[in-house]
């Protein structure tokens, strides 16, 4: 039982010698497997240990692969989507040089109107023209097999291969497959072809030259010289497939047909959709219909001969289904290929009857949209029509252009013997892990075939997971989600009210609930609609207080093994004792290495499960009076009600095309309508202890605790429970202060409590904020928060460069989907508090683009005037350039606005014109003044006719300074986007760059970047990183024209605020590198700020500001803002798994790296000290002094 | 000159050994201790609670965020030879056994009912020649009577004795209402020796941050007196051996310990301050002193100043406060510039 990523990697790893990679979803696990095996010394079929090298981008990986191939090595790599696109230039070269090479791709959507991490063929279709052969698999077994076939075939044909399978649907599906052993692989690979590849290597022992430049006399002919290899490729590939069949019994052809041999209606399809189509066709044929599916395996080279050979002669109509979109084309690529093949065969291939075959083309499944039997049936139904749609879509409701087919949503296949189970859980409760174990037990310990597929949330904190498990006596081919399950488990009770859990239950199914109360009381906790559904569907309901049991077993929050045991007990797949034995085996296998106590606690959970599970007696009628609450507040705007709410309820699939923006432009300010209620405990303010420092607010990652100052009259109508105290300020005498928690938006991370410096003098365990259970507080605090939000914000002119006053400014970034305790978002939030009303953000792909821009809701919001951050994400690699372009665009518009303004000087007055033009940049007060001037300008232009006045009115806001911020993580800034970042800071243009430095690729799961510190363990540096972190801040400061700051909010929050203000005010490029603690560091995030303090105290993260303006004033531009190391590096590193992990694996190396790291920290601090101590006037070089 | 001693059934070339401390983590330091003349190596304690805590928190920190989000189903590489159990500790015992000819005395602090015997077995299997069980326990629960504290320790000893064949010593804290009686009970339950005493981490109070901070200062010679008293009281009453630990810094301290009845003399703070070679220095001094004072063997002086044999046993028996305080010449200390706050309160 394994997923396709592992299945493919296991073949590729054994058949290659070198692998250059770069992490990208959903292909990253393949590279991670290869790296883990390489680190563990696993060998390929020739007995060598392959090496794995992480590069700075897929472009870099492709270059390294090209080089290694030239040097005669056997190479492979893994990628998808944007990464594949970055490899294209080298793919042309590799193919043009007829180089055996196999690239494994988890097919994924390419970003267009939006980014999608999910599966379709738009990336691989963008490689049709590179000269790579393309071999597409539809299942885990096929992916595994095709990896081997592609490798053998590329060696024999010299045509490089792109072997692909569907992202997530196949790459992440766990399935029972037959594994190819080393001997089979040895038999499949022809050693003479390997030797021939080596013979072609570039070597000074047999020198030759490649990569020449050719002139018009030669290029064309030389390009045609390779044709023979492509002409012969299909036959050779077919031969490899035949040999594979002899070795394994599994037969594949370039095109495979399944269905009625006399079929009249045929679907032509590639990838995982072929499995769903095949399954549906079989079902329909059993009902007497004549249908079939032609599966395209080898898409390039496209062999018309092989295609026609399997197409039934009986066929009357064909639907070609493409999982990609080519706007403006006559049809999608595969449709055009099929049409051409048929046309040629009819015209000149001796198959004139094909002239009468009708061919229609449709799109399906973009961005992992479901493709299920109901949709397949809709396509067959369409083919049966007199005049079917020539071009169509299936799987969406296109009510705009009417392209989509009608789908009978109630249609589902009933496959005899197949059991289906769906589990709704939380990421943090371990549901997915336990279900992976369950499906492995079923697949490996029973005769059943089994399949597991897991759907994750777009949020990182309190994320929901849905596990879909199937098993049965025949191989499972259902490549789509379960809609009618025999067993439904809900691991978090609250989910019953927010998503349609019961909708997944088939009539008579079993429902297992994690009950928040004793099971006998749970019925009364169910809303009326839920009770009715249970009764109507005749569900059998079991309940267990799993959260309580887990706590008692010493596993707070981890209910997975408890629920898993209940599932096995209820479903009876295995005999009870055997099931428990297998579950315990799985636990031992999964956690055994991590320690007996973890295993013991899990065992205890397993043993406690059954005794605590209760079967409920279901009454005949519903007793509840309470209905389900609305998904969003009725006060939400229309768009949120119509669109966002549907997506929040998990019903986005039902939204028609017309509901969506046509160009990817979405409203901001929608996160506030999504009330997630994920915290067990929320902070409670003790106003008598509070010293009003606002530190809690500045560090809150989710803007869920906020202070406000206001005049006493604002308290009119306040709820009785609303607390306020006298504001401690001489300037605002008589004002009140309140600190309010957003109980439904808080994630319960504890950072605010940890940072709170105010303690009760008589009982220091009580602080000015303390955590308390959320549920009892919910009603009152919800009302208090609502009242709080309505109190007017204070005047922005009171804003100073300190933590305290910044926190009175409304955060224009709130309730994001970031992890609880996130170390990045406090910086982003601060940025919006300081400059949000004039802020444009260019955001690199990564965590910050996900919590910043992953639908359904958006955390960027607006101020009372409706202004707020405008945000966009271009790509991962180009973000600095993207932001620079924004600045250039804004400046050009301003130039034009100034031009027009001068023209209207006689109308609006010279003084106004001069004053407006004089304000190019400025602080808060200057911006406010300029806004007033622009208002005056607008009002004066009101009476003026003509297009120029109209244009000036339109663009007048560009006369108000804008703040452009380029935001991204270290993967972008240090690695993939570094070239662009370097260029941008060298441009001298007024942009600000914020690097949220977590020291790993956080969003893709903790791969090392060049920001990863010496000695840390990360993916791709399993033995601990042996070179120090790149000092990006220092590098940038060497330009002398860039404002640079290294900050750590947890260590010195006022320093962070100052750096933001200085960076923004600096009229050239600014770079802030912000230390961001992260779950990928491996410790309790509540201690994030404490760790930041330690990082600074030991010199690991020295704080500094390099301000070129100081040099202009004759001062040293470098200002070191943290003291010489006061503690040892280990006081910081000992607390983080990423550092101490190595001690557990290789203590000698850990000790060595720790020493190197300590030396490096010391040396760097000494260097900074020297730089900061230099006196620019006296330390000037002699030549300077003379000049 | 015969410095040999029998301790926990082991024939040792002299009574001096490093006490439980991180000194043993570095194999080079262990070799240096052997070269300096240490007669045995006492491992630092294997803390079951710490192992459990590490395992559980590592589990929470790596598994908690995993499988929550499609792009990052984990945040750390899957380590194949990764271990959070006691392996590192056990491997170190094996390495010390390989690297030196010295007997190794394991040290264990368990918490769970099965944990004590469980880990004791591991330590024995790793090659330890004897085991010190370190009952590091602060009785914070006011409802828990002293008899229960004692009974629990006795049960632990019995469990461990049942689990292993190597000799087992018990390292005690001084906080028992009748330490001598309790030591007798341990002796009867089969303890091969008692180690006097454990030094607890003492919390200090940070008056600015209002926090209690754990603190461990290195010992000083005056701390030895508590050990001397109880060694002197116990000597002759036990079948098992007595070791002194805490406050041994000088040759005189060593002599006093032996005279009070110790078969083993453990040093930690002195070695941390002065390095492993300090043992050699003390041994040379000891030889010299014994020669000068015409002692032939350690055996000859052992217990000579115990309660049973000492000329004025009342010094050990009564806590004669006032007398002691009268001996405290306050003026003398003032002359040395001691602040008046140092005045002991009566």
Structural description of this entry:
- The complex is a heterodimer of chains A (1187) and B (346).
- Chain A has 7 domains: 2-247, Rossmann fold (3-Layer(aba) Sandwich), CATH 3.40.50.970; 253-394, Rossmann fold, CATH 3.40.50.920; 420-479 and 487-496 and 510-615, Pyruvate-ferredoxin oxidoreductase, PFOR, domain III (Pyruvate-ferredoxin Oxidoreductase, domain 3, 3-Layer(aba) Sandwich), CATH 3.40.920.10; 631-665, Pyruvate-flavodoxin oxidoreductase, EKR domain (Pyruvate-ferredoxin Oxidoreductase, domain 4, Irregular); 676-809, Alpha-Beta Plaits (2-Layer Sandwich); 894-959, no CATH class; 999-1173, Rossmann fold (3-Layer(aba) Sandwich).
- Chain A contains 44 helices and 37 strands.
- Helix content of chain A is 40%, strand content 15%.
- With 346 residues, chain B is of the alpha/beta class.
- Helix content of chain B is 41%, strand content 15%.
- In chain B, the strands form 3 sheets. In chain B, strands 3-12-11-8-7-6-5-4 form an 8-stranded parallel β-sheet. Chain B has a two-stranded antiparallel ribbon with strand order 1-2. In chain B, strands 9-10 form a two-stranded antiparallel sheet.
- In chain B, α7 packs parallel to α8 (251-260) and α8 packs across α10 (278-292).
- At the A-B interface, α2, α15, α22 and α42 of A face α2 of B.
Short description:
The complex is a heterodimer of chains A (1187) and B (346). Chain A is built from 44 helices and 37 strands. Mean pLDDT of chain A is 96; it is low at 1180-1187.
Spell out the blueprint of helices and strands.
The complex is a heterodimer of chains A (1187) and B (346).
Chain A: E1 2-3, H1 4-14, E2 18-21, H2 28-39, E3 51-54, H3 58-70, E4 75-79, H4 81-96, E5 102-107, H5 122-125, E6 133-136, H6 140-157, E7 161-166, E8 174-175, H7 182-188, H8 191-199, H9 219-224, H10 227-248, E9 255-259, E10 265-269, H11 273-286, E11 291-296, E12 298-300, H12 304-310, E13 317-322, H13 333-348, E14 358-364, H14 373-383, E15 391-394, E16 419-426, H15 431-445, E17 449-456, E18 464-472, E19 485-490, H16 495-498, E20 505-514, H17 522-525, H18 528-537, E21 540-544, H19 546-552, H20 560-571, H21 576-591, H22 596-612, E22 614-615, H23 638-648, E23 681-685, H24 695-699, E24 705-710, E25 725-726, E26 736-741, H25 751-755, E27 769-773, H26 774-790, H27 803-806, H28 825-835, E28 839-843, H29 847-853, E29 870-872, H30 879-903, H31 905-908, H32 910-918, H33 924-941, H34 947-955, E30 963-969, H35 970-976, H36 978-986, E31 992-997, E32 1000-1001, E33 1007-1008, H37 1032-1037, E34 1043-1047, H38 1053-1065, E35 1070-1075, H39 1088-1097, E36 1104-1106, H40 1108-1112, E37 1118-1120, H41 1129-1133, H42 1137-1145, H43 1147-1173, ...
Parallel strand pairs in A: 2-3, 2-4, 4-5, 5-7, 6-7, 10-11, 10-13, 13-14, 14-15, 16-19, 19-20, 20-21, 28-29, 28-30, 30-31, 31-35, 34-35
Antiparallel strand pairs in A: 1-8, 6-12, 8-17, 9-11, 16-18, 17-18, 21-22, 23-27, 24-26, 25-26, 32-33, 34-36, 36-37
Helix pairs in contact in A: 1-2, 1-6, 3-4, 6-10, 11-14, 15-20, 15-21, 19-22, 20-21, 20-22, 21-22, 28-38, 30-34, 30-36, 42-43
Chain B: E1 5-7, E2 10-12, E3 16-18, H1 27-36, E4 41-47, H2 48-63, H3 87-99, E5 104-109, H4 113-125, E6 130-134, H5 146-163, E7 168-172, H6 179-188, E8 193-196, E9 204-206, E10 211-213, H7 224-234, E11 241-245, H8 251-260, E12 264-267, H9 269-274, H10 278-292, H11 298-301, H12 314-317, H13 321-327, H14 330-335
Parallel strand pairs in B: 3-12, 4-5, 5-6, 6-7, 7-8, 8-11, 11-12
Antiparallel strand pairs in B: 1-2, 9-10
């Amino acid at each position: 039982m394994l997923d396709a990523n592992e299945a493919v990697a296991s073949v590729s790893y054994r058949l290659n010698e070198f692998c250059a990679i770069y992490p990208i979803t959903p292909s990253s696990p393949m590279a991670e497997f290869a790296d883990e095996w390489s680190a563990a010394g696993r060998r390929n079929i020739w007995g060598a240990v392959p090496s794995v090298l992480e590069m700075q981008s897929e472009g870099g990986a492709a270059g390294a692969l090209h080089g290694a191939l030239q040097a005669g090595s056997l190479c492979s790599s893994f990628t998808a989507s944007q990464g594949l696109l970055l490899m294209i230039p080298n793919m042309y070269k590799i193919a043009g040089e007829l180089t055996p090479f196999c690239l494994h791709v988890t097919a994924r959507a390419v970003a267009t109107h939006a980014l999608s991490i999910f599966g379709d063929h738009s990336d691989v279709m963008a490689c049709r023209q590179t000269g790579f052969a393309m071999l597409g698999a539809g299942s885990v077994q096929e992916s595994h097999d095709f990896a081997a076939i592609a490798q053998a075939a590329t060696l024999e044909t010299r045509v490089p291969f792109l072997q692909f399978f569907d992202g997530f649907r196949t790459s992440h599906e766990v399935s029972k497959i037959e594994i190819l052993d080393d001997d089979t692989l040895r038999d499949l690979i022809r050693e003479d072809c390997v030797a021939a590849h080596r013979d072609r290597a570039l070597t000074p022992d047999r020198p030759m030259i490649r990569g020449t430049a050719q002139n018009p006399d030669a290029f064309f002919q030389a390009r045609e010289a390779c044709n023979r290899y492509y002409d012969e490729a299909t036959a050779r590939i077919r031969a490899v497939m035949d040999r594979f069949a002899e070795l394994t019994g599994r037969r594949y052809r370039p095109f495979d047909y399944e269905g009625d041999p006399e079929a009249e209606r045929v679907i032509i399809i590639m990838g995982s959709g072929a499995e769903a189509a095949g399954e549906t066709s079989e079902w329909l044929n059993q009902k007497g219909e004549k249908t079939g599916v032609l599966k395209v395996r080898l898409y390039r080279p496209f062999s018309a001969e092989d295609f026609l050979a399997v197409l039934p002669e009986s066929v009357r109509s064909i639907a070609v289904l493409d999982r990609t979109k080519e706007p403006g084309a006559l049809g999608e690529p595969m449709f055009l290929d099929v049409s051409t093949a048929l046309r040629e065969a009819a015209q000149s291939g001796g198959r004139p009857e094909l002239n009468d075959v009708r061919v229609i083309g449709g799109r399906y499944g973009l961005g992992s949209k479901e493709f299920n039997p109901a949709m397949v049936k809709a396509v067959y139904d369409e083919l049966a029509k007199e005049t079917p749609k020539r071009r169509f879509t299936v799987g969406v409701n296109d009510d705009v252009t009417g392209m989509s087919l009608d789908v009978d949503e109630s249609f589902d296949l009933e496959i005899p013997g197949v059991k289906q189970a769906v589990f709704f859980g939380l990421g943090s409760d371990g549901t997915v892990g336990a279900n992976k174990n369950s499906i492995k037990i079923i697949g490996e310990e029973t005769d059943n075939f089994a399949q597991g597929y897991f759907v994750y949330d777009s949020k990182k904190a309190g994320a929901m997971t849905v596990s879909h498990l199937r098993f049965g006596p025949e191989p499972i081919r259902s490549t789509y989600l379960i809609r009618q399950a025999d067993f439904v488990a809900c691991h978090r009770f609250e989910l019953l009210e927010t998503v349609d859990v019961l909708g997944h239950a088939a009539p008579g199914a079993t429902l297992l609930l994690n009950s928040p109360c004793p099971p006998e009381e749970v019925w009364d906790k169910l809303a009326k609609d839920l009770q009715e559904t249970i009764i109507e569907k005749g569900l059998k309901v079991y309940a267990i207080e799993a959260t309580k049991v887990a706590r008692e077993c010493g596993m707070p929050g981890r209910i997975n093994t408890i629920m898993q045991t209940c599932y096995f007990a209820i479903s009876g797949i295995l005999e009870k004792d055997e099931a428990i034995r297998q579950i315990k085996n799985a636990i031992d296998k999964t956690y055994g290495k991590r320690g007996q106590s973890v295993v013991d606690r899990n065992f205890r959970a397993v043993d406690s499960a059954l005794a605590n599970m209760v079967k409920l007696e279901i009454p005949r009628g519903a007793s509840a009076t309470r209905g389900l609450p609305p998904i969003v507040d009725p006060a939400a705007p229309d768009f949120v009600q119509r669109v966002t709410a549907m997506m929040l309820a998990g019903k986005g699939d039902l939204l028609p095309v017309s509901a969506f923006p046509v160009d990817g432009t979405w409203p901001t300010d929608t996160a506030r309508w999504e009330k997630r209620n994920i915290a067990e405990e929320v902070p409670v303010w003790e106003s008598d202890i509070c010293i009003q420092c606002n530190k809690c607010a500045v560090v809150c990652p989710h803007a869920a605790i906020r202070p406000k100052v206001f005049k006493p009259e604002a308290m009119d109508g306040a709820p009785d429970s609303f607390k306020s105290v006298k504001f401690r300020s001489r300037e605002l005498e008589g004002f009140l202060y309140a600190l309010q928690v957003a109980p439904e938006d808080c994630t319960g991370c504890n950072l605010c409590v940890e940072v709170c410096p105010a303690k009760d003098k008589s009982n220091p365990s009580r602080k000015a904020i303390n955590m308390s259970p959320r549920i009892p507080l919910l009603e009152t605090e919800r009302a208090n928060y609502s009242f709080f939000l309505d109190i007017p914000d204070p005047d922005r002119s009171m804003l100073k460069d300190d933590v305290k006053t910044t926190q009175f400014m409304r955060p224009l970034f709130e309730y994001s989907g970031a992890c609880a305790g996130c170390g990045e978002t406090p910086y982003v939030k601060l940025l919006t508090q300081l400059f949000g009303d004039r802020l444009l953000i260019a955001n690199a792909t990564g965590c910050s683009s996900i919590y910043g821009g992953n639908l359904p809701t958006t955390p960027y919001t607006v101020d009372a005037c409706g202004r707020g951050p405008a945000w966009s994400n271009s790509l991962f690699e180009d973000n600095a350039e993207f932001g620079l372009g924004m600045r250039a665009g804004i400046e050009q518009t301003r130039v034009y606005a100034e031009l027009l303004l001068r023209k209207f000087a006689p109308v609006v007055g010279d003084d106004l014109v001069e004053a407006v033009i004089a304000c190019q940049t400025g602080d808060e007060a200057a911006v406010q003044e300029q806004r007033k001037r622009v208002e005056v300008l607008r009002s004066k232009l009101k009476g003026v006719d003509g297009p120029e006045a109209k244009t000036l009115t339109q663009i007048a806001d560009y006369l108000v300074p804008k703040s452009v911020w380029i935001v991204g993580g270290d993967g972008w800034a240090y690695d993939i986007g570094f070239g662009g970042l370097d260029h941008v800071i060298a441009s001298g243009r007024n942009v600000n760059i914020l690097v949220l430095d977590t020291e790993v690729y956080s969003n893709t799961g903790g791969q090392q970047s060049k920001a990863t510190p010496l000695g840390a363990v990360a993916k791709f540096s399993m033995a601990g990183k042996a070179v120090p972190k790149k000092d990006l801040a220092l590098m940038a400061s060497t330009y002398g024209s860039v404002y640079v700051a290294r900050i750590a909010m947890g260590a010195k929050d006022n320093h962070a605020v100052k750096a933001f203000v200085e960076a923004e005010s600096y009229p050239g490029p600014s770079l802030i590198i912000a230390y961001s603690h992260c779950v990928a560091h491996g410790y309790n995030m509540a201690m994030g700020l404490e760790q930041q303090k330690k990082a600074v105290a030991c010199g690991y993260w020295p704080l500094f500001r390099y301000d070129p303006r100081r040099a202009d004033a004759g001062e040293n531009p470098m200002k070191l803002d943290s003291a010489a190391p006061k503690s040892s590096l280990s006081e910081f590193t000992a607390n983080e798994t990423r550092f101490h992990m190595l001690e557990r694996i290789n203590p000698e190396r850990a000790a060595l790296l720790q020493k190197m790291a300590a030396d490096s920290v010391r040396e760097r601090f000494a260097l900074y000290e020297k730089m900061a101590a230099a006196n620019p006037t006296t330390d000037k070089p002699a030549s300077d002094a003379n000049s | 000159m015969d410095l040999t001693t029998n301790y926990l059934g082991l024939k040792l070339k002299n009574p001096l050994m490093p006490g439980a401390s991180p000194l043993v983590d570095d194999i080079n330091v262990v070799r240096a201790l052997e070269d300096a003349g240490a007669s045995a190596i006492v491992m630092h304690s294997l803390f079951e609670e710490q192992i459990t805590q590490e395992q559980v928190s590592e589990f929470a920190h790596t598994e908690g965020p995993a499988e929550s989000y499609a792009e990052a189903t984990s945040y750390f590489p899957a380590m194949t030879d990764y271990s959070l159990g006691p392996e590192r500790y056990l491997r170190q015992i094996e390495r010390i056994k390989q690297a030196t000819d010295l007997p190794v005395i394991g040290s264990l602090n368990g918490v769970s009912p099965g944990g004590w015997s469980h880990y004791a077995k591991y330590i024995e299997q790793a090659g330890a020649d004897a085991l010190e069980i370190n009952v590091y326990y602060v009785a914070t629960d006011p409802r828990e009577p002293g008899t229960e504290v004692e009974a629990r320790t006795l049960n632990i000893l019995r469990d461990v004795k049942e689990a292993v064949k190597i000799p087992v010593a018990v390292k005690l804290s001084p906080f028992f209402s009748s330490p001598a009686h309790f030591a007798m009970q341990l002796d009867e339950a089969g303890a091969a020796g008692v180690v006097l005493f454990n030094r607890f981490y003492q919390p200090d109070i940070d008056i600015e941050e209002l926090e209690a901070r754990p603190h461990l200062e290195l010992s000083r010679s005056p701390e030895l007196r508590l050990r001397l008293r109880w060694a002197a009281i116990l000597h002759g009453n036990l079948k098992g051996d007595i070791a002194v630990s805490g406050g041994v810094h000088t040759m005189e301290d060593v002599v006093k310990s032996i005279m009070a009845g110790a078969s083993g003399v453990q040093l930690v703070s002195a070695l941390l301050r002065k390095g492993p070679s300090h043992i050699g220095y003390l041994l040379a001094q000891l030889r010299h002193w014994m020669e000068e004072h015409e002692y032939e063997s350690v055996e000859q002086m052992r217990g000579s100043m115990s309660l049973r044999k000492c000329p004025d046993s009342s010094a050990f028996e009564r806590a004669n406060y006032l007398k002691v305080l009268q001996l405290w010449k306050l003026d003398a200390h003032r002359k040395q510039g001691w602040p008046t706050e140092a005045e002991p309160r009566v």
